[in-house]
Automatic annotation (TrEMBL):
SUPFAM superfamilies: Barwin-like endoglucanases
Source organism per UniProt: Apiospora aurea
Region (Disordered): 242-267
Name recorded for this polypeptide: Cellulase
Coiled coil region boundaries: none
Catalytic residue list: 40 (nucleophile)
Keywords assigned: Carbohydrate metabolism, Cellulose degradation, Glycosidase, Hydrolase, Polysaccharide degradation, Signal
Residues annotated as signal peptide: 1-22
Amino acid sequence: MHVHSILTTAAAAATLPLLASAQGGWGGSSGTGRTTRYWDCCKPSCGWGLKTNSGKYVQTCDKSDGPLGGSDTKSGCDNGVASGAYMCSNQSPWAVNETTAYGWAAVKLAGSNEQTWCCACYELTFTSGPVSGKTMVVQASNTGGDLGQNHFDIAMPGGGVGLFNACTNQYGAPPNGWGAQYGGVSSRSECDSFPEKLKAGCYWRFDWFAGADNPDVTFKQVACPAALVAKSGCSRNNDAINETPTGPSSVGTWTPEATAAPTAGAV
Ligand SMILES: *[C@@H]1O[C@H](CO)[C@@H](O)[C@H](O)[C@H]1NC(C)=O
């Protein structure tokens, strides 16, 4: 009898995932979390191989922002590395429309690890500050030893270098990066003097993101937008959810000017 009950339990457990996938997948991480911001120019940790369940890894760039092949180049953050791997400038956030943005983040999730979150995507809904109610889909490109649990450290140029800094080496930024080491620049006009390729992401923070200062979020794991995968080169095989990328592989940047309705006075 004892053996029989074990078999029954095992059979039931084996059946569950099949039922779930027939229903389009379930599970994945979700909960409430916090955010911070950074841009340290370093090679993101998911840029090393063997961090995902697919063998894919986040695209990294050379010092001149040109795509590197392979995943073995040392980080530009490592001591004594003159020409290593850096974060590609096109892994900057952008506005998809008035209420949705796409981007990347260093991630740490309770009870999870890099093998589970590298290149997974999370839909963040901001719950505090001036972006409250807006949504951002981030792909996990990195992790951080100084992150708390359920913590999304959103990558945005000028967001502060944090613990490590390759921006001085790559772009000639001040010794502790642009602005404060933690938090970065504090006004939109400071983005004016940024390297050309980092300007848009720096402005994004003060435009779509409304200069929000570490807003809280609710989050849930989602299949990545194909537009993020096209830029990072990284996607996962199915895990707790169906990871097939969704939507168009290229999504342009929304600007308020392009869609602004005539003002009442102009009618
Ligand atoms: C904004 O874009 C997202 C992603 O494509 C879409 O789900 C959402 O419906 C859009 N919202 C508006 C207001 O257009």
